[in-house]
Amino acid sequence: MAVQRTLLVVKPDGVERGLIGEVVSRVERKGLKIVAMKMMRLTREKAEEFYSVHRDKPFFGELVEFITSGPVVAMVVEGDEAVSVVRLMIGSTDGRKAAPGTIRGDFSLDIMKNIVHASDSPESFEREFRVLFSESEIVEW
Fold this sequence. Notes:
alpha+beta
C-alpha cells in the first residue's frame, strides 16, 4: 500500500448547501487524514490555472464561472491509495449517474454542480496542490 496525498475541494454548491461537514465526516470515517484545509474564494486567475487541463474544452468558461461563484473548501487528504479511494468516495462526475452511497450520488443531480472536485491522479494532485496550497500549510500528524 502506498500512502498518497490528494486534493478534495468542496465546490460552491456544496458550501452553499451546508455539506462541508458531511464531506469531512466521510473522509474521516473512511480512515483518511486531512493534513491541510482552508476556505477560500478562487480568483478567476487561480480558477483558470486550477482547471487549465480543460482550457480547450467547450465547458471551460462555465467551469471557471461556477468555481468562482462562491467560497470553496480545499483540503489535502492523505492515506493509502488516497487518490483512487477519494475518487471512489465521490462517485461519477455526473451526479445523475453517480452510485448511491457516493458523495455525488447522494447529493448531486448535475454534472457541474456536483458538490466536490478531487484530483484524478498523483500528477494532477501535484499541479492542483501548487495552485491552492503551499508546503508550509501541510500539518504532519
